[in-house]
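Protocol step 4 of 5: obtain the predicted structure for the target chain.
Materials: sequence only (see below). No template structures provided, no constraints applied. The aim of this step is simply to have a reference model before the mutagenesis design in step 5. Sequence pasted as it appears in the construct record:
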Amino acid sequence: MSTLTPIATEQWAPRLARHLLSRAGFGLPVERAAALAGLSPADAVASLVDYEAGPHPARPDFVLEPVLRGDIKKANPELEFAQLQLLYQEKQREEREAVSALQAWWLQRMYTTANPLEEKMSLFWHGHFATSAQKVKASYHNHQLYEIFRRNATGNLKDLTICVGQSPAMLEYLDNKASSLKQPNENWARELMELFTMGVGNYTEDDIKASARAFTGWTCNRKEFTFTESRHDTGEKTFLGRTGNFNGWDIINIIFEQPVTARFIAGKVWDYFAGVPGDPAVVEGLANTLRDNGYEFRPMLRQLFLSEAFYSDTVVGAQIKSPAQYVLQLCAELDMQPPYAALTRAMRGLGQDLFYPPNVKGWEGNRTWINANTLLIRTNLPAIVVNPNGPGQAADGDTMMGAMIPMGKGKGNAAPMMAAGSAVQQPTVEERKAYKRAAHAEAMEKIRALPKAERQPKVDLLKNGTPQQKLALLKELGIAPPPWQGAGPAALFDGMTFTTAAECLAQLSVRFLAVTPGPAQQRGLLEIIGVSDTAAPLTPKDLDEHKRLALLRLVTSMAEYQLC
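Step 4 output (structure tokens):
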């Protein structure tokens, strides 16, 4: 039976190191797995869990100062109601664009962070303490709550719960902002116990009513929490078998004294990182560690990531990648610069729209990521990323993915990356047109210098060829690719060393797959290579660009590629 006994050093292997990096992070960067494999299990886990948080990042400039409807009226006293409505609608449009930019900004942080567990846990808390920009429209408040998750990612759970409960985003989302002595609102009180700390069946309706009364007075101004004593119910309350003049802080203290709280949280954390139902003994052991350490998260995470249970055959390679992990790993493993704004639109189609969880329960995850629609996108997306200029496709992956993934109602267009120090920007339309004109002129000049018999076919190809054929022609003529275009995924094979088809498939499997592909998939890969036997001689030089891209498209479209 799998247990919380630490995995032995002699059991540690590259496959398990990759598993750790995929679950405690996003499997990024690809090379880090090899570095973890060279450490002991304890040191590998410590390198992820015991990270030192970097400097506090500045608020992105695209995040807007929160403005209330009344502020607009006060600033424009001369305007009629209809004109004020137009101003308010314009403000809401700007906020939607800012949230879209915030999505791309966060995705970039996930991709570039030196502390992957920090961002992985931030994403966990975003789904656990779920709020949605569909209701919380201020980009300032959405960013503010993300910062709460990041700062407390692996810290103290009770402190995090208080910070979340006092965040303007949660106060607005669950309506405690307007809760008062005369009209206590029960939304936060209910979800605090049902979804955030204890789980269904461990409290009564009377406990909810008492808790709601205790949290009256918890409200906020434009930017931060305030406690309004005049709105607070100072009467006696009975909550979870205890009676007193309780306030919100008292309620949270009592909740964290309940043994079920640690058990409920430990179960959710196990499900998130393991992806399979937890052995009750394992979950109870994690809960004891969490409780014994005063709800500090790192001791429990360290125990989980070192346990034999976490590395069992039922766990390794058995979790479906979240959309965030899927799109980021796809770009990283293909050595492609991520088009962050386009990837957030792809994630929307895949069922994980950052800052827009489907409801207060957040995302269920794992198997729920796959349905008929999302599977189709997961099958098609690799072909676009591998070869964005292929026949019938748009000029770049960003454009194509934007066209393929429909925009959600009322979400606005995804804004470009604006964070300081961001990675390479996607080119503008003007930059693309300028390159196209210059490349065409240079190509024609070189074609004119060719023998007469060779000119016309190349002219025809330059005018009427597919994007892929045109790029091949430019390459043949020695014309440099655009500065924003790297060597491309096909160049991955130049860094490989293999002498047989079997060795080639093994290296592709190690880089891209958490589980070994089955016989049918291997036959498909061999068919692309043009051999029938894995023992057939093969070197990277034997694979032209077409075969290389076809191999990558197939391996990243496999069912096995959806797993981590």
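Step 4 remarks: The beta strands are 218-220, 225-227, 237-239, 242-244. Residues 489-562 form a domain with the Helicase, Ruva Protein; domain 3 fold (CATH 1.10.8).
Proceed to step 5.
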